[in-house]
Write the structure tokens for this entry.
Amino acid sequence: MEQVLELKHIHYAYHTLEGETPALTDISFALNKGEFVSIVGPSGCGKSTLLSLISGLLEPEKGLIKINGKYLKESTTNVGYMLQHDELFEWRTIYSNVILGLEVQHMLTARTRQRAHDLLDLYGLRHFETSRPSELSGGMRQRAALIRTLVLEPELLLLDEPFSALDYQTRLTVGDDIGQIIRKEGKSALLVTHDLSEAISLADRVIILSGRPASIKQTIPLIFNLAEDTPLNRRNAPEFKTYFNLIWKELNTDE
Amino acid sequence: MNNLSKGQQQYLLKHRKHKRIVRISRILILLSFLFIWEFTANVGIIDSFIFSSPSKIALCFFGMLMDKSIFLHLGVTLYETILSFLLVIAISILVAVALWFSQKLSEILDPYLVVLNSLPKSALAPLLIVWLGATKTTIIVAGMSVAIFGSILSLYTSFTTVDPGKIKLIYTLGGSKFHALSKVVLPSSIPAIISNMKVNIGLCLVGVIIGEFLAARDGLGYLIIYSSQVFR
């Protein structure tokens, strides 16, 4: 299997004048092409830090990160990053919010513009292209945020609790929705969440982190026997509960 | 328009009544102020030589309209105020951007900006005349000096309070600090820039009038000083 992402012995610590707070110790894992992996862990354990490292916003103190077999610094692969909040700009229309990444990376061409229109059309936002973000529902905003990431044609998607700001009902439908969009586009994705059922409903594999400083406790592959493997169907499958209890127990045991 | 419900009609009526009361009260306050002023001056409760009266002011203004001298003074003050206002806006945005770009620079300059902002600028105006001469430049600099430091400080503050999540978004999309400035910081600071401009136009006028008190042969400030000295 081709590996999109590879992390080897990553260490990271935050520094303040009061002292040093180790956040990650010796994190190693790999992500195969087209695979969807969830990372769960107690809150504040450094899950988001991990995504910041992979996207290059932070630099690891020790260890190496490879994307598509190249070191992060030399890599030209686009990595999409979806944040906790949609961060759509109120002073831009939905369409110009969606092309923000293209503008920033100087990739605005007739072809990429067309792709932005196509994606908006495909995911039901065509009639909202000229609307302001405040006119959209929470779920639609999150979809617009995903399209903003997808127009850059990333091979790897990083999702940092992208549904946590939504209410429960929207969260289930948007999670289902976005999970299927990502599958359909054939992207590899890394989801960070503290919501176990979200992690199980979306991923092929769940990585469990320990409390701060985080290290990998266990990796659990998820196998569902479903005719139609969607996040919502998974929630009703008998395996769901088994996995939930397994991960729950793992999270709550201290070595 | 007949298909409005009774509740909606009542609401609209109430809204209109509210607007009417506000408008009429405003005009009433102005008229009664002018009336009391005029009345007390005429009856002799206040000394019209010191306090003047609305009718005298109107007559004087009319006289100056006739000999066109008011246009010269108004024009000069307006020109100086607008020029110093535009310079203040341009310079303070540039400086605030520079401070935003460099955390070090802003920390180094912070105490100086606070001190410069709290200097009594009107007391410095005589010095400006000595340095720059009794010219229009002096007056424009005087106008700028009143507004510029406060303007830099408030713009910089609004730049630094931009939502960090939005700036992070720019970096996750592969943008640079320059992109963060042009795509996030400046657009989201437009309301702050506009309110800053509203304050500055007033401050510039104050500064220009102070400058004209001391160093001008025309303009409203000169007119005020001249008039107060000849008791008109």
Observations:
- Residues 35 and 83 of chain B are 37 Å apart (CA to CA).
